Give the backbone structure.
Amino acid sequence: MPVAMTSGPTAGAYPRVYAVVRRIPRGRLATYGQIAALAGLPGRARQVGYALHALPSGTSVPWHRVVNTRGSISRRATFGDELLQRILLEGEGVRFDAGNRVALSRYRWCPRQGRLPRGKAR
DNA sequence: TTTATGGCTGTCA
DNA sequence: ATGACAGCCATAA
């Protein structure tokens, strides 16, 4: 196991990211930026991507519930992975429209209603 | 050490 | 609606 950053503002960032992702209810979605903010890493959506990418297979973290701000699955190294994400989401009742996008305004996870501004979504 | 890249986001055309 | 640009900063080489 890596020593990890034992100091600094980013100390233990990965565990925090995982903790937040784990709280996403089934059938709900969150964006990288949203996760980053909730994990105390505002503006570091990329790191969230790295954290999720580092997850082992068979993890209990629902990484598939994290998508980009457009509501679409980011292009990954292989089609298999992004397809898997879609399959998993559909298995939770999330519908994709043409273009492989989901209605974020409809599925967005709101840990605290009004925490993040997103128009008049409900 | 430096450099390049990137599972993103927000703004502007 | 889509496409281009610029910030952001951790990770990999």
Chain A has five helices and two strands. Residues 31-33, 36, 43-50, 52-53, 66-70, 73-77, 81-82 of chain A lie near DNA strand B (CB under 10 Å from a C1').
